[in-house]
Design brief:
Chain lengths: 659, 210, 351
């Protein structure tokens, strides 16, 4: 049964101009999600997945925020007995775990999932089913972690879970196992999501979208994704090793038998430091893309900002030991790491001055989103300089593990993640929903959040300098921290009120916001060339891109321009779900990709994995084995070559079939 | 179809869409999405081994007393497995070549041979573990068993991949016009073999070098 | 609306400035040091002396940079107010992309200089505070446990070694070496008035040294989360003039006189109820699980700096340690009123 060698199928893709309604209808039929429960479970539409990420991440933000408010009530005065020490330790741990793992990165994944194909001029991500998988695993691992909380067995060793306190001897319950397995589970989502972003960037950009025309959000997410591929294995491995220590008596971290507690710290921070950059670089990208719209001019120093993004992340891999300055590191290493930790601020300075220059050289239109971005710049700098202070080893020896560090981490995380995220929602809400958010309520929102945040967290710099340690459930009246803690508590509640105003604004705008139109902000990038909200197929024809600002080309460098971006004319690609793959550097059309439609496999694979992790938690080894088999079967079903996607040869001809 | 116009040369100079035939759905080289995805997966999984090896040397450096505590582990099983792994890489390379030359049966044979060698590898690793069951508990034993264990886990996944690919190849799914899956599976198997080399160098060779 | 945003933004900036100024003013006031026992913006020891200018320096740079950026932002925002924008709403601010790069070059250039300067200064301070001017004559071994501090004074003369807990005395004006060990989890040893923190990690012995410049009582605290009562793992360092220190030292070495009369019975009760965990040198009571109680009455605090050491708190602590420090390893004993009175009477003799 020898096959005569057949050529791979190929065709000249049809290009059209100004597609008519019948074309749009046909594309809609091809790309829309199946109705009903099957569609809910099986959708691979990146826009739906993006919204799910955003909503779920915000749900976790609220949970983490409530935990924080409970903490603040306990610390509002000295020697309060509102919350027991055991409950307090679980609260601060879950607050950290929730914010660092279940809110801050997933919310950025939400933006990127929704926006990337639109920004890149594509119809979907490179791996639509993998996209769905990364969301389902995120949801499942978040629920898995929170199950511990609901039965009072939440992890209680902080979000970085140092040993030996996390070992079986000192923490015998299942709580730490929950943390370890939960993080490994979540790590799968992060990893597959990162692979998806990187391959999407390399493959599915619109023709002409060369790398020097990519929006900075894309640079930020790409940098974070590549970094995650190298960083997440460290924490997954650390969690696996500690889990083995706790279940099977291995001694990776037990100093009584050759192990080393510091090995945990090294592995964790080799992940943890790049991770904090992954939490902020995409958000900085949001601002770098949205702020120029309101400044009515392009970002100043695009190339420097893009390179600065990558440089920050690369250097970020070298400085993890600055979380360990007090552990007895030799002097020479201390000097080197301190210098590196201080100097890493340079690429960040590039971004700050780029933003200020853009505002300066532009003509600002003050909207709520714009105010969030301006507030972000200031909070970024304050968080950055407190980081600069802790980067100096001798100073850090006093500052570390006090509320000064708590102030620093919140300025950088709330300032560089939450503020751009909220501003980003104000900016893209019209695109997601077709409606504008309420500007008046928005102003109340931004000021309440800004004032509340600073009122709550600025005093922490001072309580830190007055020696208040982290992670204490109470303190004595003689310490001098009483008044500042009360101010912090009040500020925190004001900040929470601001977040509530935001949620109210979202709710009322969904129902009754003003109709937005395609491009209410007159913004320059490709997503604003689609209807609001975009149809399932994003673009009726694949656009061709000639600059960083396709929608401003008539007004920007208009006389110099020889090429123009094309939105209304381009490749149709309607023989089923199709999009174009382009070459990596110059984005020239390369392959017509067949994209999968709705699929149940990602959901059921997640169920199998969840079963596996629950079984491991409960030590139900047979169930774990069965779940592993289930996982294998789900993957097999997923990867089974499909004729319609050109994944296998047609029976007789030896040529791959395609729909 | 009535309202849309096929493309006429535009009035102002604009970028032209593709005017040549583009492959549909599949390419067979490193440009394929599946291959890129596999390469990045390999990168992240290889990093796990990197961190494991870091943990090994970090623990060795902080060890009080001899390292390894009971002397170097024997070379016998590890060397056998190294050779078997390299031969299996050859079998997979053979299969890769065969599928691109549109010889699916030959390719399936290569994949099945690699699968068989992989199973033998698994068995020998089991013998190796039994031989090292007498290692005193402690950090060295933990590291030895876990590093080899993580490798075995990746190997087992590789066996699954080889089995699936053999089956699909025999069913006629793949050929010269659709060779990507075999090449992608081959890439994974090369990674498993490379990891075997790294594990061998760390556990079996490095004690002799210090 | 333009008015709103302008004044609103300025309000935010002014508030921040006011807060920062107040904060800095508060901190630099030495009287505040007394009000903040764990503060370190005033130094009382050699190493802290070396670090403090760098702390103030980096803080000054930080405040200056923050104010500068706030000012630049405000200026960038406000310079266009009042500009006529009644024309084309689709107008862009520029006709050419590009431009504005000098902002980045100057801003990053200045930042780099400042950052490199700070890094260099850091190296200098690191080497300054690294080693003491003279070799320490006294070495103290600290054993950290959940949630108290074992303190052992070492000496080449065996007769001059002794163990105590939670309170450390050192002579002023000379370096004292510390060897830090943990029996269980990671803790951190910190006396802010004298120097920065050093983690106490099981499986390794970290070392540090402290040199007090001024006699006084300095608060210490564990600063690495170590479990339920991390919040109540403090200690006290008392720096004394050399003669006073020697007097204290000799007093600590002095044996406990044997109790007579009723107190003998009190000691029996004490041994029965407390001897499993506690020790009093010179008596048969030799438990090693808890703090050494020799010369207990000479200490200023109880329960690792949690409560003052007076008869009232002693009684409350023994009667129900879980009420003061829930989760503490000292159990709530089944002890009757008369038994408690006898134990307290005995402890009252441990001057």
């Amino acid at each position: 049964m020898a096959h005569s060698p057949a050529a791979s199928p190929a065709r000249i893709p049809e290009a059209i101009e100004r597609p008519g309604q019948d074309v749009l209808d046909r594309l809609e039929r091809i790309w829309r999600t199946e109705p009903g429960l099957l569609g809910v479970v099986g959708t691979v539409d990146h826009k739906i997945i993006g919204i799910r990420y955003l909503v779920t991440a915000f749900a976790f933000l609220i949970a983490g925020g409530l935990e924080a408010l409970a903490i603040r009530l306990q610390l509002a005065g000295p020697d309060r007995a509102l919350i027991s020490p055991q409950a307090y330790n679980q609260l601060f741990t879950m607050h950290g775990v929730t914010m660092m793992f279940l809110y801050a990165f997933p919310v950025l994944s939400g933006f990127s999932n929704y926006l990337w194909p639109l920004l890149l001029g594509s119809r979907d991500m490179a791996f639509p089913r993998l996209n769905a998988l990364s969301y389902w695993i995120f949801l499942a691992s978040g629920l898995f972690l929170y199950a511990s909380f609901f039965i009072g067995q939440a992890p209680d060793d902080g979000w970085f879970n140092y040993v030996p306190y996390a070992s079986k001897v000192y923490n015998a319950g299942p709580n730490i196992d929950w943390y370890l397995l939960g993080l490994i589970f979540l790590g799968i989502s992060t990893t597959v999501g990162s692979v998806n972003f990187v391959v999407t960037l390399m493959r599915t950009r619109a023709p002409g979208m060369s790398i020097n025309r990519l929006p900075i959000l894309v640079w930020g997410t790409m940098t974070a994704s590549v970094a995650n591929l190298f960083a997440v294995p460290a924490v997954s491995l650390a969690c696996l090793l500690l889990w083995l220590d706790r279940q099977f008596g291995t001694t990776f971290f037990d100093p009584r038998d050759g192990g080393s507690p510091l090995l945990w710290q090294h592995l964790f921070w080799m992940f943890g430091h790049p991770w904090v950059y992954a939490l902020v670089l995409p958000a900085m990208g949001i601002v770098s893309d949205a702020l120029p719209t309101f400044c009515r001019r392009p970002l100043v120093g695009y190339t420097l900002v893009a390179l600065g993004t990558v440089a920050t992340m690369i250097f970020g891999f070298g400085v993890w030991v600055h979380h360990m300055f007090a552990t007895g590191i030799p002097d020479l290493a201390l000097s080197f790491l301190s210098a590196a930790s201080i100097v890493i601020a340079v690429p960040s300075a590039v971004a700050v001055f780029a933003w200020i220059a853009t505002i300066w050289g532009g003509r600002p239109v003050v909207t709520t989103a714009f105010l969030f971005f301006v507030g972000f710049v200031l909070l970024f700098v304050i968080g950055g300089v407190s980081g600069f202070m802790t980067g100096s080893v001798p100073v850090d020896w006093q500052l570390t593990d006090t509320y000064f560090v708590v102030a620093h981490i919140h300025y950088v995380l709330v300032g560089i993640n939450v503020f751009p995220v909220i501003g980003g929602i104000y900016y893209w809400f019209p695109k997601f929903t077709g409606r504008m958010m309420n500007e008046r309520l928005g102003r109340w929102n931004v000021w309440t959040m800004f004032v509340g945040f600073n009122l709550g967290f600025f005093p922490m710099h001072i309580t830190g300098l007055m020696g208040m340690p982290r992670r204490i459930y109470t303190y004595g009246p003689e310490m001098g921290w009483t008044n500042l803690n009360l101010v912090t508590t009040i500020g925190s509640f004001l900040f929470a009120l601001g977040v509530l105003l935001f949620l109210v604004n979202v709710a009322i705008s969904l129902r009754g916001g003003a109709v937005a139109g395609d491009n209410p902000w007159d913004a320059p990038t490709l997503e604003w060339a689609t209807p609001s909200p975009p149809p399932p197929y994003n673009f009726a024809v694949i656009p061709t891109v000639a600059s960083r600002h396709p929608l401003w080309e008539d007004r920007l460098d208009a006389d110099e321009r020889t090429d123009r971006s094309q939105i209304d004319r381009g490749l149709l690609l309607d023989h089923g779900r199709e999009t174009i793959a382009t070459t990596v550097l110059d984005a020239e059309p390369d392959v017509i990709l067949k994209m999968p439609g709705d699929s149940q496999a990602p959901f059921w694979l997640t169920v199998a994995l969840a079963l596996l992790f629950v079984a491991l938690l409960l030590h139900a080894w047979w169930l774990a084995g069965a779940a592993m088999i289930g996982t294998g079967l789900a993957i097999l079903a997923w990867l089974w070559p499909e004729r319609g996607l050109g994944q296998r040869l047609a029976a007789a001809t030896g040529a791959p079939a395609h729909g | 179809m009535a309202d849309s116009a096929t493309l006429a040369p535009p009035a102002d100079r604009a970028l032209e869409p593709a005017e040549r035939a583009l492959p549909v759905g599949t390419v067979s080289d490193v440009r394929s999405s599946g291959m890129l995805g596999m390469l990045f997966l390999i990168l992240t999984e290889a990093t796990i081994f990197g961190y494991l090896i870091f943990g090994y040397f970090y623990t060795a450096a902080s060890a009080q007393g001899a390292w390894p505590p009971q002397g170097s582990p024997g070379l016998g099983y590890a060397l056998t497995n190294l050779v078997l792994a390299l031969v299996s890489a050859g079998a997979v390379w053979w299969a890769d070549r065969a599928i691109r030359a549109d010889q699916p049966r030959s390719a399936a044979a290569g994949l099945a041979a690699a699968l068989f060698l992989g199973l033998v590898l698994l068995g020998i690793q089991g013998l190796d573990w039994r031989a090292h069951a007498s290692l005193t508990a402690g950090a060295y034993r933990s590291l030895y068993l876990t590093i080899t264990g993580v490798h075995v886990a990746h190997l087992v996944v590789g066996l699954g991949i080889l089995a699936a690919l053999s089956g699909w190849t025999l069913r006629g799914y793949f050929g010269a016009a659709r060779s990507a899956p075999v090449r992608i599976g081959a890439a994974y198997w090369y990674f498993v073999v490379a990891a075997e080399v790294a594990v061998f160098a760390t556990l079996s060779l490095s004690p002799h070098l210090s | 609306m333009r008015e709103d945003s302008r004044s609103g933004h300025r309000d935010g900036r002014d508030f921040l400035l006011a807060g920062a100024t107040l904060g800095v003013a508060l901190l630099c006031d030495p009287a505040c040091a007394a009000a903040a026992p764990l503060g370190y913006m005033t130094a009382f020891g050699t190493r802290a002396d070396g670090i403090l200018p760098l702390t103030y320096g980096t803080m000054a740079i930080s405040c200056l940079v923050s104010v500068l950026i706030a000012a630049l932002l405000a200026w960038a925002l406000l310079r266009h107010r009042g500009t006529d924008r009644s024309g084309n709403p689709r107008a862009l601010a520029v006709a050419r992309s590009g431009g504005g790069l000098p902002w980045i070059y100057v801003g990053v250039g200045v930042s780099t200089l400042v950052l490199f300067g700070a890094a260099a200064w850091t190296m200098v301070v690191l080497s300054t505070v690294a080693r003491p001017a003279t070799k320490p004559r006294l070495t103290i071994e600290i054993t950290a446990r959940q949630w108290w501090w074992g303190v052992r004074y070492l000496s080449p003369d065996h007769a001059r070694t002794f163990t105590t807990a939670n309170e450390i005395h050192i002579p002023v004006g000379e370096p004292v070496a510390f060897k830090l060990a943990s029996e269980d989890v990671i803790h951190s040893f910190w006396v802010p008035a004298l120097h920065g923190k050093t983690d106490v990690i099981p499986g390794q012995t970290n070392t540090t040294w402290l040199q007090a410049r001024v006699p006084g009582t300095y608060r210490g605290q564990c600063t690495e989360y170590c479990g339920q009562q991390h919040a109540h793992m403090g200690f006290v360092v008392i720096a004394q003039e050399p003669e006073a220190f020697e007097t204290w030292y000799r007093h600590q070495l002095a044996p406990t006189p044997p109790p007579t009369g009723d107190l003998a019975e009190a000691q029996t009760t004490f041994a029965a109820k407390c001897g499993l965990c506690h020790a009093v040198r010179g008596t048969p009571v030799g438990g090693r699980l808890g703090p050494d109680l020799t010369h207990l009455k000479s200490r200023t605090t109880l329960a690792a700096g949690t409560v003052p050491n007076n008869p009232g708190y002693r009684g409350a602590w023994i009667a129900d340690p879980q009420h003061i420090k829930p989760g503490s390893k000292m159990p709530r004993l089944d002890i009757s009123g008369p038994e408690l009175a006898r134990v307290q009477a005995y402890l009252d003799t441990l001057d």
